Retinol dehydrogenase 8 (Pocillopora meandrina), 322 residues
Amino acid sequence: MGSAGSRRSTTVAATDAQEKQQPQVEELDEDGSPRIVFITGCSTGIGLATAVVLASDADKRFKVYATMRNLGKKAALEEAAGKTLGESLFIKELDVCSEEAVNSLVKEIESEEGRIDVLVNNAGQGLVSVFECIPIDKAQNLFDANFFGVMRVLKAALPGMKARKKGRIINVSSIIGVNGHPFSEIYSASKFALEGLTESLAPTLRKFNIRCSLVEPGPVTTSFNNNAKSLREGIDSSTADDKTQALLQEALKEMYRTVTEHSQTAEEVADIIKNVILSRAPHLRYQTNSQYAPGEVQAKFSDATGDKAIDLMEKRFYPETK
């Protein structure tokens, strides 16, 4: 894996390219109060890092409500938050798969703060498996978290943002939401759905001075390295044919190589999310990894037939198979 310095340069390059060196920072509200930020999926990874980065802002521009499904997993966030806990960072329980829970928490925060300025929809789950072996209910559960969870939060928070004619929405997608990856079909499909939702909402929400952005990380250290063993053990290929089994093993080698050579930290992604929040005119899409993402993005958007993207995936994941 590359050094922290090389990973940092990767992040800076991506930020520079898309923000043109420095974002134009928005002003605080007229009363000088910090932005009220609502983040989902904060028990680990990008959500945890984003909550801490924003709450630790030297200029105190953010008040963060960091949510997670299971408060039994809050210890890591509490430790990382340090002295910001209870000052600029507040931990709340939230299952994005429960409409009642989402509506209740949004109302609670709006009642206490008067508004929600920024939504960071990060909660979700991954899945690597042989497509034919995935039970329908498992796929539905993944969509419930990755897509319908975002929908629930948006439905609850948008009326307030529209009424105030101000807001910022950041949906954490994935580079796999740009190009589909083998053996990640259901996860990829959920991120494609999220991308379509965000892109479709964006023109209308601009009329309310609400900006939507997609943040599209590549491999993130915490999301794979900590779970590599369980990932392999959790893959169901029991009913797959021999060739598919062989292709799966080849694809897993590529996944591991990609992570070891091109991963970035959750903190690096969080820094980019902060820049997007502070940007006066944010873009729709931000790829966070300038080493890994450009080839995929160019293959996707430079060829309307889609052939380049498929060729790229075939060559990358199956270099040994004719």
Summary: The chain is about 50% helix and 10% strand.
